[in-house]
Amino acid sequence: MRIASESNAGTRNPDGLPESIDAKMRLQYEVEQFLYEEAALLDERRFSEWLDFLTDDIHYWMPIRRTTTAKDTENEFTEIGQMAFFDDDKELLTARVRKMAVGYAWSEDPPSRTRHFVTNVRPIAMHGDDVTVEANFHLYRTRLESEEDGWRGRRRDVLRRVSSQFRLAKRHIYLEQTVLLSPNLSNIF
Amino acid sequence: MRNEKWREETGLRAAEKARLPSDFIDVEHGLVDRKIFTDEAIYKDELKRIFGRAWNFMCHESQLPEVGSFFMNYIGEDQVIAVRDREGVIQVLINTCPHRGNTVCRAEQGKTRSFMCAYHGWNFDLNGDLIGVPGLDEFYRGGLKREDWGISKAAKVQSYKGFVFATFDPQSPDLDDYLGWVGKLGLDLMGTDRELVAVPGVQKNRIRCNWKLAVDNLFDWYHPKISHASAIRSGFFDEKLLYPADQMVMLGEYGHAVSGPKITMAEEEALAALSDSERKAVFDSLPGQSWRFTESAAETLGPVGIKSRGHPNIFPNLWVSTGGTQLCLRVPRGPAVTELWWFTFVDKNAPEEQKRKVVRMATHFFGPAGLLEQDDGENWNHSTRTCRETMTSRRRPLNFAMGKGQDMVEVDPSGQSRVETVINEHAQLWLYRSWAEWMEAEDWPALIANHAAEPRGRI
To answer: pTM of the predicted model, to two decimals?
Structure first.
């Protein structure tokens, strides 16, 4: 790895990411802190505060994954516009949060106990105010006496700088399961 | 002490075994024994007597566009491959190699030239013929006739307007006769006069419940106000849409039924008062529904069917849902596990914006993340679990008596019959009554001879 010097601290590689190690570390730190704080909000069920972490044009999407042969893996995930598990804008995410708040949301009452783990965080592109970030996640859920569900996968997020703070502008969630082994997806990934 | 317990338990089991399926369903009082939702022996019998005999939904023809296109599904718990062969004919192959039983296909969909077993390399043509055997001359030395060892297939494969069904039972009536007018109406409520195509992506997820509880729920217009209260209260759904008082039920032979809201007289009058373009605008505002304002729809659905906005079930487990834009299969995966498979359809010739609306509606209503569906599974899970509890299961049958004995079946001059009433449980009870007939019949001729005709008069 090339050691960054003061003189090239401001330069960018083709993905728009900074080249200097200091700038990279700073970006990594900012991105991770944002994702960790966001995960904490979700696990603490502070959903309306979580909505404030989103841009108004957020696209929150989870395609369907299929078991395909090795030579057909380009058809593994459904595409935008085809069927998906989630295909939400801010209005729909707000409706989901409102739904949990109004009472009688039986899938979340009693509430699920969740824990979000976010790892392998990699900023992979930066253009203007937008940073594209890949991360692995594990969302663990237990409910009632002894029900357990878990989802692992990859998220591709776009974090946008809005008045010096990150906001989530895109979250595309790629699960490992094809047949979901959980009875529902009533939680936020 | 232990011996006595054992005697008591096995004694009870023997007594239960002596009961006939119809003993579990008290049609007169609308009661259903909880045992049918949990018992392993009953479940195994269902796989043979219901799924092994019925016409099971495989896929839509648009999912098999080319020679070699395939889609994996199940008949009961037997995995099958629906595939378009070299003649363009849809075959349903049982996914097991006749040599050692290994599967010959492991992708859930795709396109292939043949199905080669990954164990020893037996290779099967798209129509199931055995076309390749490594060492046929060298090792078998003339002792294996390829023509005797093709892959096993469903007994019959037939389509109704593009929807492909298969049965394992050669004695079954043809699909048209099996569906009858109620089953056909159910599928026609998808707007089958249009060029329907399946949207890529079948949502699949697993619920910890008995499959029948998931099926009887689709007729259930009593639960939305409570089960889906949060979706209503959060403003996502109109209470009137989810809990309409005016209901219509159509009951068909072999267990098919349509149950749910009807277009009321007041609504009909309001619609009649509109101009053609205003009326079209009303239907256009409902994604995927504008076809219902066509003369061909009125002709296809008939004078009673055209008024239905209810939920059809093609017995045993195919729900026509979401205003006819979706199908949901309740796939049995054990007495207490059911997979829900959601198929979504659009009119190929509809404007892109309309198609997009249908897809978004489907994603937001149903599937595991759907604002409606996410609250259903836990109820069915708990219903199944409590039916397992020995004491309750023995003593308290479940109540399916809503409306029992209080409604009349009316027959339209067209021959279409229906019950027009308030929220009720007629279709659910019909489902369980039919279930008992299927379970009791020794074979298709017996079922044909002994199943209940469409009810008439008081119900």
So the answer is: 0.94
